[in-house]
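thought: user wants a sequence for this fold. calling inverse folding tool.
action: design(structure=
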């Protein structure tokens, strides 16, 4: 079973992720406060973090960097991060923040689960550095909905 931390505060995003991951293979832990995401990820020993690009005061980029930094300071490997984007062009932001995979909202359950699979299979992306372009569906980047 995958333990997944969801960092989002918009009701429709929460509902879409819950519906997409409501299987016996997933256990969802949620926080609407991005400032507590790294702590929650460690406390609940999550396998992957799913973060909305637009969440409260920090945003998905800052959450991704914070998770990476706090785990790194503790000498631990960071869980992979999947970012929920508003548009395909935001893939650049996800990549720069160090997200392992991303999906454009609105997404289908299959698209989100595929992004989780890609994130879990990929080595962690370096934060703030140019990383391999992951924008094609074969390589694990954004999969436009529709």
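)
observation: tool returned 146 residues.
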């Amino acid at each position: 079973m995958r333990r997944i931390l969801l960092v989002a505060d918009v009701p429709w995003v929460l509902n879409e992720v819950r519906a997409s991951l409501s299987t016996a293979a997933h256990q969802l832990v949620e926080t609407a406060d991005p400032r507590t995401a790294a702590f929650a990820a460690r406390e609940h020993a999550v396998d992957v973090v799913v973060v909305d690009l637009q969440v409260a005061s920090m945003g998905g980029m800052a959450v991704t960097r914070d998770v990476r930094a706090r785990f790194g300071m503790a000498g631990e490997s960071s869980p992979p991060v999947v970012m929920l984007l508003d548009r395909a062009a935001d893939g650049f932001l996800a990549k720069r923040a160090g997200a392992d995979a991303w999906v454009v909202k609105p997404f289908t359950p299959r698209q989100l689960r595929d992004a989780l699979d890609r994130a879990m299979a990929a080595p962690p992306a370096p934060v703030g550095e140019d990383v391999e372009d992951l924008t094609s569906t074969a390589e694990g980047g954004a999969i436009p909905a529709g």
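thought: summarizing for user.
answer: Here is the designed sequence. Strands lie at 2-7, 26-31, 48-52, 81-85, 101-104.
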